[in-house]
């Protein structure tokens, strides 16, 4: 096989996702060329999209390892909470970032260890852990948000969520995160171990791979990403809400699968997942921008998910 | 006599109330080909998995080059120079041939970044050595697209890669044509003449007899016979012995003791 053919072949899933995105944008553009030739619409998507990227990309690793993590919205809320508490206490926002990252990482480790050590179904166990974490947040805060007006003029906000030539800084951070994760997934020993574990955990074990360790590491990655997402969204809003993260649950999961990572483990695509997040983010903007009412958003979400899934199924054979 | 390469002493493996292995002693010398035979369910694969560090024994000791090993696991077994072709072949079918060959032993530089072009070159060389003839197959082919025999070839290529001191083959010829089987025998002989040891499991007694220096018969978790080629010069003698033990009732071992 020629190198070009090979490149197209191994990237068929993310390329398929990209094709869906291009077609969708073409339709939007055709529906209302005036709205879609303005930068503002892209700037508004790029403001919030990175939050989703920090969640989608680690989930690609978890799903590739043959697991799922449904507790990421609660982990995101929890890590952002610890960030907000430190900022609210008047300490340095950078210290708050460290607190948020440590919290997210520890939660990811705890959730992963729970699933792996007790040999639980990650689907059910992480659902339960999500409720527990969100429950703790609700009990402690009784629904009250934490306002963080002091973040407005902090250097952290300028660096993390300011603007670079009218491009939201977080979009650049998000892009960097995606590139780094894609390298980890495709070019690093960890990435190939994740694929071995999801493909055939018994074989991986027989070849001396630390299967449990790899599984836990993928959950830690989700915890870390959820913390980054939580911190970023708090920075954008100057406020932490006890419901922080909840709105990302279904769009983020949809992005992973729309992106071309199958549910059965062993294979997946980071670039596709990121493109999937782009698609899901633009559906809302696009539907409203095209002059339809917001009530159409969910309907089009569903249509795009189903069409993308059919496309991937046809595009990507499953080997057993 | 030099110390055996590996030695198993008093290995017991219980699955619940089932004793798959019931006190097995087995030593493999350097440069020796041992043929392990026994009925279905005799415990051959279980013994191999314990040797490969995949299963922990319920009791017993493992010695490598005369040293008793502790915390034996699959990674340590491979590091000690034991490469295994498992009965289930241990492949990840959605990954490429090359990734499978280097599974658990990836060629990586500092910080764990993969040396993919080096892996590809090495995989190409190994595939030629193992005798992949199809032009459509490259190191980047997905294993799921390969035939059963070709998959076996990938598994064997993996075991051959780092010139292991002991190569363990669990029914390596079960899915292979005559020509492919002859190739596997060739690898075994090559390994022996290079001073490496082989543990060869098979159901075809003629095959095992043709290749091994010593025969070990496992019967319901116990070693029923260990004889050199000199003591058992014909395959028929081995077959007769196996038929005799197949007709004999199991040695009654009260459940639950010695676990
Ligand atoms: N994971 C397990 N759990 C319970 N019992 C097991 C397990 N693995 C093996 N056994 C039992 O241990 C015994 C030995 O099995 P083993 O696979 O070692 O046999 P074998 O000699 O390799 O047979 P074959 O020639 O069919 O491959 C069998 O009775 C089997 O049912
Ligand atoms: Mg067996």
What does this structure look like?
The complex is a heterodimer of chains A (320) and B (259). Chain A has 320 residues and is an all-alpha fold. Chain A has one domain: ABC transporter involved in vitamin B12 uptake, BtuC (Orthogonal Bundle), CATH 1.10.3470. Chain A is built from 15 helices and 4 strands. In chain A, strands 1-4 form a two-stranded antiparallel ribbon. A two-stranded antiparallel ribbon of chain A has the order 2-3. In chain A, a hairpin with a 2-residue loop joins strand 2 (163-164) and strand 3. In chain A, helix 2 packs antiparallel against helix 15, helix 4 runs parallel beside helix 9 (169-187) and helix 5 crosses helix 12 (211-237). In chain A, 50% of the residues are buried. The mean pLDDT of chain A is 92. Chain B has 259 residues and is of the alpha/beta class. Chain B has a single domain, classed as Rossmann fold (3-Layer(aba) Sandwich), CATH 3.40.50.300. Chain B has 8 helices and 10 strands. Chain B has helices at 44-51, 74-79, 97-101, 116-130, 148-160, 178-193, 205-211, 235-247, and strands spanning 6-15, 18-28, 33-38, 59-64, 67-68, 82-85, 166-170, 197-201, 214-219, 222-228. In chain B, the strands form 2 sheets. Chain B has a 6-stranded mixed sheet, with helices on both faces. A 4-stranded antiparallel sheet of chain B has the order 2-1-4-5, with helices on one face. In chain B, strand 1 and strand 2 form a beta hairpin. The longest helix of chain B is centred in the last third of the chain and has 16 residues, at 178-193. The two termini of chain B are 33 Å apart. The chains are: A mainly alpha (320), B alpha/beta (259). Chains A and B meet through helix 10 and helix 11 of A and helix 2 of B. The complex binds adenosine-5'-triphosphate (ATP) and magnesium ion. The site of adenosine-5'-triphosphate has 12 residues of chain B, from strand 2 and helix 1.
């Amino acid at each position: 096989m020629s190198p070009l053919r090979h490149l197209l072949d191994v990237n068929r899933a993310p390329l398929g996702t990209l094709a869906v995105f291009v077609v969708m944008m073409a339709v939007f553009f055709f529906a209302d060329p005036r709205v879609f030739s303005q930068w503002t619409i892209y700037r508004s998507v790029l403001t919030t999209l990175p939050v989703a990227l920090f969640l989608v990309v680690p989930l690609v690793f978890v799903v590739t390892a043959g697991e799922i993590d449904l507790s990421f919205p609660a982990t995101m809320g929890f890590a952002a909470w610890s960030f907000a508490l430190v900022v609210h206490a008047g300490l340095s926002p950078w210290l708050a970032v460290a607190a948020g990252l440590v919290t997210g990482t520890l939660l990811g480790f705890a959730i992963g260890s729970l699933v792996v050590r007790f040999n639980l179904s990650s689907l059910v166990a992480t659902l339960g852990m999500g409720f527990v974490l969100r429950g703790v947040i609700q009990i402690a805060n009784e629904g009250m948000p934490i306002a963080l007006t002091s973040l407005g003029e902090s250097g952290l906000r300028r660096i993390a969520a300011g603007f670079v030539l009218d491009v939201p800084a977080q979009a650049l951070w998000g892009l960097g995160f995606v590139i780094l994760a894609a390298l980890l997934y495709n070019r690093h020993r960890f990435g190939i171990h994740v694929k071995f574990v999801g493909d055939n955990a018994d074989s991986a074990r027989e070849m001396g791979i630390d299967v449990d360790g790899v599984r836990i590491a993928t959950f830690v990655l989700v915890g870390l990403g959820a913390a980054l997402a939580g911190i970023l969204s708090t920075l954008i809003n100057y406020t932490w809400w006890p419901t922080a993260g909840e709105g990302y649950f279904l769009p983020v999961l949809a992005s992973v699968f729309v992106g071309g990572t199958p549910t059965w483990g062993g294979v997946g695509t980071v670039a596709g997942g990121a493109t999937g997040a782009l698609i899901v983010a633009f559906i809302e903007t696009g539907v409203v921008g095209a002059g339809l009412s917001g009530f159409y958003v969910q309907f089009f979400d569903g249509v795009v998910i189903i069409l993308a899934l059919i496309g991937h199924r046809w595009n990507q054979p499953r080997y057993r | 006599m030099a110390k055996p390469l590996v030695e198993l002493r008093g290995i017991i493996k219980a699955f619940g109330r089932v004793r798959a292995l019931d006190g097995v002693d087995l030593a493999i010398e350097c440069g020796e080909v041992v043929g392990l035979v026994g009925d279905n369910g005799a415990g051959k694969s279980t013994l191999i998995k314990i040797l490969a560090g995949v299963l922990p024994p319920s009791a017993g000791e493992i010695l490598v080059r005369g040293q008793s090993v502790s915390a034996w696991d699959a990674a340590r077994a491979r590091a000690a120079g034991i490469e295994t072709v498992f009965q289930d072949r241990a492949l990840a079918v959605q990954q490429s041939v090359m990734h499978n060959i280097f599974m658990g032993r990836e060629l990586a530089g500092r910080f764990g970044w993969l040396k993919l072009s080096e892996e590809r070159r090495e995989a190409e060389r190994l595939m030629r050595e193992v005798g992949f003839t199809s032009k459509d197959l490259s190191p980047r082919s997905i294993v799921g697209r390969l035939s059963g025999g070709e998959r076996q070839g990938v598994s064997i290529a993996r075991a051959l890669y780092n010139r292991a001191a002991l190569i363990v083959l669990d029914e390596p010829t079960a899915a292979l044509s005559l020509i492919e089987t002859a190739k596997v025998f060739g690898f075994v002989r090559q390994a022996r003449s290079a001073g490496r040891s082989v543990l060869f499991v098979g159901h075809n007694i003629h095959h095992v007899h043709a290749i091994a220096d010593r025969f070990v018969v496992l019967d319901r978790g116990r070693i029923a016979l260990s004889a050199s080629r000199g003591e058992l010069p014909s395959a028929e003698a081995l077959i007769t012995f196996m038929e005799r033990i197949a007709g004999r009732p199991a040695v009654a071992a009260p459940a639950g003791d010695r676990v």
